Amino acid sequence: MATQKIETQLSMFHNIISNxxxxxxxxxxxxxxxxxxxxxxxxxxxxxxxxxxxxxxxPINFATLPLCGLSLDNQVQDEAPFKxxxxxxxxxxxxxxxxxxxxxxxxxxxxxxxxGYRATELLGNQLIxxxxxxxxxxxxxxxxxxxxxAERKPFQFCYRITTASGEEKxxxxxGQGVYSASGExxxxxxxITDITFAKRAEEESRLLQTMIQAIANAxxxxxxxxxxxxxxxxxxxxxxxxxxxxxSDGILxxxxxxxxxxxxxxxxxxxxxxxxxxxxxxxxxxxxSSQQPEWIPNVSITPxxxxxxxxxxxxxxxxxxxxxxxSCQEQVLAVLTFFMFESRQKDERLVxxxxxxxxxxxxxxxxxxxxxxxxxxxxxxxxxxxxxTEGIFQTTPEGRYLSANPAxxxxxxxxxxxxxxxSLTDIEHQLYIExxxxxxxxxxxQEHGVVVQFESQVYRRDSSVIWISxxxxxxxxxxxxxxxxxxxxxxxxxxxxxxxxxxxALEKERELLELKTRFVSMASHEFRTPLATILLGTDLLxxxxxxxxxxxxLKQLNxxxxxxxxxxxxxxxxxxxxxxxxxxxxxxxxxxxxKLFCQELLEDIQxxxxxxxxxxxxxQGECSQLEMDEKLLHIMLSNLLSNAVKYSPxxxxxxxxxxxxxQQAIFxxxxxxxGIPESDRSRIFELFHRSSNVGTxxxxxxxxxxxxxxxxxxxxxxxxxxxxxxxxxxxxxxxxIQPHQYSSIEPIRRVG
Length: 752
Ligand code: ATP
Ligand code: MG
Known about the structure:
Layout: H1 2-17, H2 22-37, E1 43-51, E2 54-61, H3 80-88, E3 92-96, E4 104-107, H4 110-115, H5 119-123, H6 129-132, H7 135-150, E5 155-162, E6 168-179, E7 185-194, H8 196-217, H9 221-236, E8 240-246, E9 252-260, H10 266-274, E10 276-277, H11 282-290, E11 294-296, H12 310-316, E12 321-328, E13 331-339, H13 348-387, E14 391-395, E15 401-404, H14 406-411, H15 417-423, H16 427-431, H17 437-448, E16 450-459, E17 465-476, E18 482-491, H18 493-544, H19 550-581, E19 590-592, H20 594-608, E20 613-621, E21 626-628, H21 630-646, E22 652-661, E23 664-671, H22 703-713, E24 717-723, E25 727-735
Parallel strand pairs: 20-22
Antiparallel strand pairs: 1-2, 3-4, 3-7, 5-6, 6-7, 8-9, 8-13, 9-10, 11-12, 12-13, 14-15, 14-18, 16-17, 17-18, 19-21, 22-23, 23-25, 24-25
Helix pairs in contact: 8-9, 8-13, 9-13, 18-19, 19-22, 20-21, 21-22
Bound molecules: adenosine-5'-triphosphate and magnesium ion.
């Protein structure tokens, strides 16, 4: 009898595992292999690929399964090993009728561990197996078995049962029909095992996965929080969830992220929005400070000191409460609090699950925050780059643009940064006017790493020229090599133009001041001397005139006359200069007989030369009918001739040569005087300038400036050759053309 029972059980077991579900056969293989290799036995996990949606590990302790390695075809000698085998299987072996109750005819002792009910209870009339199957799963279980049996195939599926203690468990069942020789279904035989752990792990992993995905897709920290709160509530049955964010002073503030499964909870939310929690105070404060989760089975009966919103919670019917920190690198990013309508003791698994979610969330949140910060920074800098009124650039050391902003494109006259980058490919030669300017720019960057207010003139696209000021620095790679230069460009053309204008105005001011000073010192000297002569002469004549001979009197009167003339000439010169400066000196040509004009002039000159000089006059060509301004010609020649006399104090020959040919009149005045030193030659025509070698020879430095002006008014030119101690020759060339054709003349150059 006993042997028969064992044989039945053994055949059942054999049937179960020989139904050829590959996973179970694999399990058998593994058991065999393990027995061969590890006689001592250790816990091995066998992966049973039950259904596509049910993946779990089935733990079998080989130490307690000493006979598993036996071939099932072996002749069974003893009942004991099979009992042990059945009893130690992590689940329940069964034989049942194929009815809606799943009436059990045999269950192994594992049924107690699986269901909390004893075998006797399941085999008797007190309890039918169908009752412990979750109501939502009962129909599916029935359908699965019937479908498999109809095709005479084994069945495998997962479903939920409620154990004797009320705990819900996920189980995996595999079995098959037992048929009579005539093919009639007589019973079902199979194996049921607890897969709750695996199922939960799978659910948790799914929850985490969806949450990670959702958080990753969220736009910012708060919407990521909102996603997390909603997911946790929906997956774990909490009715209300919210987040608390620490301010910089550590106080926790209610985040905009929250979830509620029921509108009745709105007053609770409103109160949260008005509440803050100091560190260590209230559920969020305590969780934030301890960085540990906290569970309150029923907040509505918790003292105010521990839960400040008791009354509102009571009003809304909230009971269990749970707080969990979201932290990263020991810094609390947020505290999540959840509440439900039921009172519930601490559920370690839930705490673990949410803790795990929170940990994931922590690192995700931090990444998210960094991402958001980066995005914001990028957007901010992009906006600055795009909207800056200053040009911004990045250029390669070779002189190409890597990037340019719209302002730079505008500045250089391009329609867009893209056009600028593609057209301006050689900064050194295309941009800067000064050819080595780019080299200087790079040199400064190499020396100092930065350039500040680097001012240059550059070409715009239309070849117009502007002034720019650049501030730039070099960007290096890890090896210290320059990757690119970046900086800003400002158009300073307006400032530069203004600077030039100011400089010109200042220069003019300075010139005027200098002129004034020179004029005052010259005038005081040049007036004082003849005035002194006049005063002395008149004094002498007054006091001693009655004793003077007529000749001596005449001499004195002559001196007075010369002094007065000198003063008159000075006044005339000043008047002429001021007229010329104001552009009021005009050229009014008339027909002149130059030869005659010069002969008369030379007679006057002869007078002042005190007969020390020999005067030569030579006139070539047709000079009798020239169209010139007589007054200006007089100024010109008298200045040249009087200088020739004045600056050859030792006497000598003074030559005046006139050549009228090729539609021009050439006047050449040569002397054998002191000459003009090299250093003074460039300034001879400046107002008030007198050479360094004039010594005591009197003069104002006005004559040559006036002469030059007179020449220019005739459209002519004046040059000279000189050798110190040998003599000087001035040459004036005047075109003999109609005066109205003379070009406009610049005012007299002052000092340079
Ligand atoms: P004034 O205004 O009374 O003529 P000035 O003769 O000194 O005074 P300019 O005629 O303008 O002034 O001549 C300028 C300077 O040029 C002179 O002071 C003198 O140094 C030099 N200079 C001009 N002509 C001669 C010359 N023929 N030989 C040597 N130096 C000369
Ligand atoms: Mg002179």
